Input
Amino acid sequence: MQIIKVHSAIRDYEVQFSDTFDFLEAFEEIPNRFYIIDSNVWGLYRDSLFSRLDPQLVMVLPIEEDRKNLYTVMEIYEVLMSRSAKRNMTMISIGGGIVQDITGFAASTLYRGINWIFVPTTLLAQADSCIGSKTSLNYKNYKNLVGTFFPPNQIFLCPRFTKTLKNEDYFSGLGEIIKLHLMGGEQLAHELMSSLPALVGRKDSAALLSAIEKSLMVKLSYMQDDEFDTGKRNLLNSGHCFGHAVESTSGFNIPHGQAVVIGMLFANIVAKNRGLMSSALFEQLYQYALQPALTAKPNRHQLDTDALFAAMKMDKKRTGDGLVLIMLIDGFKLIRTDDLSYDELTSTNQELQKLIGVA
Output
């Protein structure tokens, strides 16, 4: 079993890779355990993997982006307290990134922190969000405005879960894999472009496992010495500044990882037009890394400049008058700028719409 060890100022933890679901049986030996399972995952595995679970120890959580809020967290509090939850209980969360955010926040705040095991079942959660300690909740129309830093005690990662993912969820995760590989430098970027046809085809399990491992290692390299996101880790928001705005203006109908791909395309246009990225690199990244993985295109209404500008102004990392943007530049280096203006947003948005063929 492959293991990635993650150092945290809060507590060190491990990501354990497994080719089978055998680790689920080991959970039955944990005293004072309680399972919170994504309703989609429950529906797929209720009569197989979860058939042995005691129904009294399970909460099936309906999951949608608009439920990633404090009201859903309070639902969890109610269920746990009705079962006389104590501080020594272990919450076992099984699901994707939304489950991770909701249950992680609940685990971090109930009794100021209880034991928490996370089993990521989506590609997005496996390749990116499962590590990093962050929990994030939406507030009204503002994405990830509320949150804590609270890592799981353990993470169990089985890529076999991704076989049952819908295409939209799989390609959302692939968007983050692409982002992290591009952040890993030129060699890793070229490895990604070589393996992308296999990843897009969803038939090469070895290529997928390798991509997940490499993605997590890149993310770890950006988290080192900056667990609480005050410096270098900010660069992990590559694709997110514009991408989060697209999620917001689309009412979260554009999946997160797909919005990140759109956000990277947007940032690459800005970098090219500012003379920071060569036209050759721009075209290479478009043809062989980003365009093949873009499966969810926003419409013209969802790319309304005024709505995007309003959403980007709410970026919690914004400190100046301009908009924040993380850009990949020549040499596969990343820079953060906070001087994106409304006019540059407008012209870049127009070029983006032509590039991806927005109707």
Q: What stands out?
A: The domain at 167-356 is CATH 1.20.1090.10 (Dehydroquinate synthase-like, alpha domain). The longest helix spans residues 205-223. The first strand starts at residue 3 and ends at 6. The mean pLDDT is 94.
